[in-house]
Design brief:
two-stranded antiparallel sheet; 1 helix; 69 residues
């Protein structure tokens, strides 16, 4: 009986872990989709840094929110 109870507890832990993992994976995919959709919008470009190629490498510009206007 003790072995049966231990096996049942292990099975319950496995089921709980599977449910948590499924929830994590679903939320991860939702977040990935939201980020991808956001990056398709023109407004998203103001949050990206633009770099220009010059003779000796790249010239980095500050982010738009760091600019004092």
């Amino acid at each position: 009986m003790k072995f049966l109870m231990h096996t049942r507890q292990r099975k319950n832990k496995t089921e709980v872990h599977k449910k948590r993992q499924a929830t994590y994976e679903r939320k991860k995919e939702e977040k990935k989709t939201k980020v991808h959709q956001f990056l398709q919008l023109p407004e998203a470009h103001k949050f990206m840094s633009s770099e220009e190629e010059v003779d000796n490498g790249f010239l980095s510009h500050s982010y738009s929110w760091e600019n004092e206007e």
